[in-house]
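Support case: user asked for a sample of complex input and structure output to validate their parser. Sending the pair below.
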Amino acid sequence: MEQSLYNKYGGFSQVNRIVMAFYDDLLDSDEIGPYFDHVDMKRQIDHQTKFIAFLLGGPAHFAPDHLKRVHDGLRITEAHFDELKVIFRGTLENSNFSPEDVVTVLDLIEYYRNQVVAE
Amino acid sequence: MSIAAINEQLLRAVGVGIAVFTYPELSLQFKNEVFETWFSDDGIAENLPEIFPTLDIDNLFKVIEASDHYATEWSFRKKRRTMAITQMFTRARISGEDVLILECQNITRIRELESMIESYSTMVERNTREIQREKEQVEKLLLNVMPRGVYDEYKNFGVVSPQKYDSVSVMVLDFIGFTKTIDKVAPATLVSELNELFSAFDRIGEQFGCERIRTTGDMYLCVAGMQDASMNHAAAASNAALRFIRYIRRRNENADLSWKCRVGIGTGSVIGSVVGVQKYVYDVFGEAVVTANIARQEAQALEILATQDVINNLNGEPEHEKARSVSAREAGLFSLVST
């Protein structure tokens, strides 16, 4: 059986660094940081922890409509989604992800574009 | 540079936020850069209640008066980040005047990490529960194809070694006219009937220490004496068979479908083993299985036929007589009598 990226990059002991780095990068972003101006820290970290673990094939579960539900009403644009991918690319590269694995993860994120971007 | 100047430089340079207030007026006397960045970058607030509007000042006075120290935690938003700061107030006397020293430590990262660990724990706990549920389902399935003792061996060692049981009793049962019933009855009804019958046999067998090994179509095979070598397995299988027949008779009185089973019981040795690699099943082979099958084939509707070896182990109970049919009698079989 193929090893998940979650296990390949050291399980939660390493993935937690990616979660925190991404959290910092998002809040520092002038483009999409304002989306989090009034978001509860616990809720945001909980969501990011589970989403990143889920993306990397870790022990997280996401109901198919969960992403749509949590992003409903936020009016996220295509450009902001693209920016999120740029930020996440940077986070992964800084976390020593190989170029192929960065592409794999970004392709997975792209798969959820329609659930995140406002119609 | 004087000692006082060095001290002040130090206070300004440390990574914790430090401020000094007059006591009990609580006017701001000194703040270092870290404190200013966190709480007072507008420079307007000049006393403690203005800087921390929701701080419980009454409680602060009460605790300071009692112990000179007061600890609390402060949380606020700074550029969309939820900052968490611990505050330690200490009353001190400087140059003959009371002051309140406030020391603030940034524990934002600790709180963020705690939230992440909480989130991760929830994930892992949920996963563990799901794995446990799956494990129980697998266990249930495996217990359907092998006895518990064999399953335990498989679970602990990953393999099941074939085992010879020198003396057990095997009971084999099937239904007369089953092929015709298949043609007459809807598949769902037929399966439901078999489920009900075999489940009842399982319950009755369990009471007598008989363990179902397998069913093949309408044939049901169980063994007594595999798990407990000291039991009277011939009597156990015989009594269970009599209860099977009694159950079928009663069921036939009220059911649309009337079932007529025939039962054979044999005593002797068997070998028990898991057979197959990808699709494995636990099975028993040997003398007792062969003789039980011969007896079953000779049995008439609702009759239990047992071999001489079974009868020899019964100590008279349950009652038995020479088999009714000539071929069965010639084969040395006995019919068990319900009392």
